Amino acid sequence: NYNLWVTNYVLNFPFFGLLFMRYIYPQILDSVFIESLRHVDYVYLRKHEGENDLRPPYAPALERYEYSYDWMEMFQYLKRSFVYPIASAYTLVRSLGYKPAITVGVLMYITPGTKPLAIFILENLFSSRALMRELLEPYFGRIHFETKVRRRWFEEREGILFGFSIAFYQLVKLPLIGMLFYGVAQAAAALVLVKTTEPPPPPDLLSTYRIDYRYRDPREKKIHKE
Questions:
Q1: Exposed, middle or buried by CB within 10 Å (0-12, 13-18, 19+), for 128?
Q2: Which spans are transmembrane here (predicted)?
Q3: Whole-prediction pTM value?
Q4: In terms of C-beta density within 10 A (0-12 exposed, 13-18 middle, 19 or more buried), how is residue 226 classed?
Q5: Is the Cβ–Cβ distance between 161 and 197 less than 8 Å?
């Protein structure tokens, strides 16, 4: 109805404009991300003051790379609906695997009244994943992975990224104030990046550096060092 249309589209127009702005003038959201990285580095150095074998600061390492984006990514953004994506069979299979996807499809088909719930769950699943990709764009706009490697990078961290993005997705959907929560999420994504990746090498060494897309639990790293 009319009220639902106003809530979903008109009141969320500032939020859509904020996302679109990333491809026209990305400096604002990029600055939020980098400043958050600096704060994470500051807290990390203070917390581990006097210790040896500390990781190098993340913000300066990432700032050495020039931020750039592919216009094709913008066209992909325009083609998709961020708030209500269509859960295609292909995407469902890629996300859950063949057997779980078939099970979900059969249950949706034979169980009365489950279709609205299934649509709601899938909507939140795919939208939260899209949100996480947007939040990490300041990183991937500098460190350009091949498509296959980038996909594996997300798969290795899928649990952590989903847990982070699903909570913020519910907040960024709120009319009018959703864009404020998006700014908070953009800053918080810097901490997620620091916890799940190592700082990149200097740009002149990137061609000879093999970026490891695999994820290792920080607790395991600490035990290994000890």
A1: buried
A2: 6-25, 160-185
A3: 0.73
A4: exposed
A5: no
Rounded distance between C-alpha atoms, residue 96 and residue 118, angstroms: 14
Neighbour-count burial of 79, counting CB atoms closer than 10 A to its CB (0-12 exposed, 13-18 middle, 19+ buried): exposed
Record the tokens describing residue 188, joined without a space.
């918080």
pLDDT, tens only, 147-167? 888 888 888 888 889 889 988
Say how far apart CA 191 and CA 123 lie, in whole Å.
Answer: 26
The Cα–Cα gap between 32 and 28 comes to 6
pLDDT digits (tens, 9 = 90+) for 115-133: 677 777 777 777 888 888 8
Mean pLDDT of the chain: 75
CA distance 127 to 81: 9
Q: Give the integer Cα–Cα distance in Å for 19 and 169.
A: 13
Q: Which two tokens stand for residue 29?
A: 């959201």
Say how many domains are in the chain.
Answer: 1
Whether the CA torsion 5, 8, 11, 12 is positive or negative: it is: negative
Q: Where are the alpha helices (DSSP H) in 48-85?
A: 58-63, 71-79
Contact 49, 99 (CB under 8 A): no
Q: Is 163 helix (H, G, I), strand (E, B) or coil?
A: helix
CA atoms within a 13 Å half-sphere pointing along the CA-CB vector of 26: 22
